[in-house]
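Supplementary material to the annual report.
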Amino acid sequence: MKTKILDIGKICLEDDRFRISYYFSLDEIVLSLRKAGLIQPPVVSFLDNHFVLVSGWKRVIGCREISLSPLPVFLLEEKDELKIFLLTFYENLSIRRYKIIEKAEILKKLKKFGEEERYIVKNYMPLLEIPRTLRHLDSYIKISCLEPEIKRLINEKDMPFYSIQMLVELDAEERLLLLPFLSPLGQNKQKELLEGLLEVSKKEGITIKKILNSSDITKILNSKNLSYCQKGDKIRLMLNRRKYPAFFSWKDSFESCKKRISWPEEITLKPSRFFEDDEIFVRFGFKDRRQFLKRLSKLRELADKGEFSKMIGLPYDRKK
Amino acid sequence: MTGKNNHFPKKIFIERNSINFPFTKKILENNSDVPTEVIENAQNLVEEIKSLRDPWGEGKKYILLTTQRGEFVKPCPCTPHYIGCNYFIINLDINCPMDCTYCILQQYLTNPVITVYVNKEDLWNQLDVFLSNRRNRFIRIGTGELGDSLAIDPITENSKDLISYFRKKLDILFELKTKSINIENVLETPPAENIIIAWSLNSEKIAQEEEIGAPSVDERINAAKRVISRGYRVAFHFDPIILYPGWEKGYLQVLKCVLESIDPARIAWISLGTLRFHPSLKPIIRERFPLTKIIYGEFISGKDGKLRYFKSIRLEIYKKIVDYIRSNKGKKIRIYFCMENKEIWEKILKRKPTGNEDIEKYLSSPLG
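Predicted assembly:
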């Protein structure tokens, strides 16, 4: 490997055949370049009559950002693409953990540079902490083919594999339509929204596009008073209602019973999660004996109401 | 699905340290037309199959003969926070050649290959100890928890040995649980009142669409009739009951067929359980069976963390099925729920189970 001083413009950044990382912030590297200069020279190779960047993408893009040129570079003599790619792969592997999008890119490129699928599964996937299966290889290859905007979201939000797999099941148009709503949500809400869409789509036999174009969702989407985050939340809750019609029907009945008997706010009445247990919990605070007895007497009064019996009989009596 | 046909198994793998067991020799003699391969380490084969695109589909093509290093007999794990029935399971072989979409083994087992344990002497010894430690109480025990009891019986002939072992132990109810119709070995073996041959049944639509490679419901019921004619008692497991438009008609039709063609006195029990599964099974089913809709029902997270239908739906299903059984010659048939809560037992069966032993007593008595 030789060292060389190279004008930054001579490095063909459009040729990204060895690039692993795409979605990163330049703030820290720019600061470092301004304060300390380029300490570690990037690695390039001369292929197809131009200089191709092998490793040091963040550094070179940072240099370009602050017009730092020419640069010291290491010039590889190796011409075999796979061997060159492995150099950057192992170099990065030794210093950091790859993110999901980077792993997907690596696997795609290993395949492109001629590694056999079974060899990739056996030898590279364990290094990337991916289960050694062809099924996982397929999943990662699909992830590598997602739209750049989606990949950026996955990277920025550190989306878990399970949610990414759901994104893969959508078509490009659907993914891009969802992008603004997914972006402000946290991991759990993203998962819930995607799961809701996929499940309602499968359950009702309609496309996700059709769900998103339905009047109730369009109304949310067109609302000017709601932020993207609020819109995402509302859609998520609406999908939940479609996913759990029996549960919400019970929940609504329970709440309306409570309302009808004017259940006092200071006494909490809470059924078990999803009403799976038949017990209902009551919780209240009191300052003294007088208040304690007053609340008990209020509870007694409520218990004598017909609506109360109806409420505790749910959901079994719902259909009666 | 027959256990021994032109397509299955594609090959029998034998772990080297299992070659000399008499059971291995018997299996190989009985299946001399099946290609075999001796392997040094079963784990390597398992890892190899697991690395494929569809490990579960692939694993069902082969049989692995190996030894059981742990316990053959275990309490049925049931599920936390729901009522169990004190059942014991014998793990003599695991996995099965049928490929039901909802099969929990896809998530539960770490080994996708159909595996037969050949150290049967250890099984008998363990069973002797197990049973002598539990003298003076009824025991319900069976195979068919981590595999199908009869699906590969033409290859292993396990049913003959198991029935013969349990036949004289009259305070023990032994159950073979299957979806298959491989009953030839059972028919060749003398029956006893404490031996129950059980079929897992479903509506014909679910059987056709979700129980890939399994015989039709009619074939299963006909097989049950044949074992009854031979002198055995039978049981039926409607599990998992799956909700779909028209489910009621579908399930009641099967029940009608059972109750009209089988003497209720020969039915030891009917168990009911609606579809439930660990959340991690969902992506597996979605990936392996993209056309199935069964995982998109109204599933809530139960007290055990498994997904199950919302309670009002379960109550409705059980009520309709139990009412039908009770009012159609099945008044005296013992019905129980698999992995359900107290409230469902009380509301549907009007029983207040006081614990697992109570259910065990209900199902074991009177024996025969």
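The two ends of chain B are 30 Å apart (CA to CA).
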